[in-house]
Amino acid sequence: GQQLNQSPQSMFIQEGEDVSMNCTSSSIFNTWLWYKQDPGEGPVLLIALYKAGELTSNGRLTAQFGITRKDSFLNISASIPSDVGIYFCAGQNNYGQNFVFGPGTRLSVLP
Amino acid sequence: EAEVAQSPRYKITEKSQAVAFWCDPISGHATLYWYRQILGQGPELLVQFQDESVVDDSQLPKDRFSAERLKGVDSTLKIQPAELGDSAMYLCASSRLVHEQFFGPGTRLTVL
What we know:
The structure holds 2 protein chains of 2 kinds.
Chain A: E1 4-7, E2 10-14, E3 19-25, E4 31-37, E5 44-49, E6 55-58, E7 61-65, E8 71-76, E9 85-92, E10 100-101, E11 105-110
Chain B: E1 5-7, E2 10-13, E3 19-24, E4 31-37, E5 44-50, E6 53-56, E7 65-68, E8 75-79, E9 88-95, E10 102-103, E11 107-111
Parallel strand pairs in B: 2-11
Antiparallel strand pairs in B: 1-3, 3-8, 4-5, 4-9, 5-6, 7-8, 9-10, 9-11
């Protein structure tokens, strides 16, 4: 079946630093979603992308839909302690079909 | 802000027992999803409903799992009998538009 890869698997950064993570697939997707999950909670939708090349921001978060439609990127600027959590990407290749989730990137922010 | 509700939040059971999870989607959301998330992994779809109809249950272990959404609103996921390997977070999500999903807080199941 379809699989998504996320990189890096985990990262430790200093508070105030910028963060970049990506999600790649061997298949083409038409929609990308980025979620953040805190321990013991459900994922929270951060950003949705619907068009190749699209760049969308949500506060300090910026996500891009890759031109090849096989990847997506999430950037966090000026990280703060509450950014700690696991970030998941999810891709949908056809309208109405299921989303496939990546394995997640675990972010730790050091004070 | 409307949210997806799930209960219970935590469930501990012994193997071979039956368990049930409940989900109430955001009002007006016709599509409802049940996911299973094993620790350290991303969510994996178990079943998708469009109103009261099952759209996709290809990954649902039907010998022990069942799901229903009788009136097209809230939904129940059941496991009978539970096995040790069923320990996981069970997440419900709903969507009005098929290219967005909003998750509930999940039910953490521990099978002893």
